[in-house]
Amino acid sequence: MIQLLDQQSTWQSMVKFNIGQRVSFDPDGRMRWGVVIKFNPKTVVVMTDDGHRWNS
Q: Do residues 15 and 36 make contact, with C-beta atoms less than 8 angstroms apart?
């Protein structure tokens, strides 16, 4: 039951993203900006301004 609630919470957080949406994140202490290019049930793929792809 706890795992199901955790998955539901994660899903609710992820559905806030849309393809083409501009986002920022701080994966390693350095702020990065990019655009959401792909949305899967478990991951969001972002193309950063410097041309790198990040999966989250």
A: no
| Cα–chain center distance at 17 | 7
Buried b (16+ CB within 10 A) or exposed e, 12-47: eeeeeeeeeeebeeeeeeeebebebeeeeeeebbbe
pTM over 0.90: no
Rounded to whole angstroms, the Cα distance separating 28 from 26 reads 6
Q: Per-residue pLDDT tens for 1-56?
A: 555 444 555 545 556 778 899 998 888 888 999 999 998 777 889 999 999 999 87
User: What is the Cα–Cα distance from 22 to 18, expressed in whole angstroms?
Assistant: 9
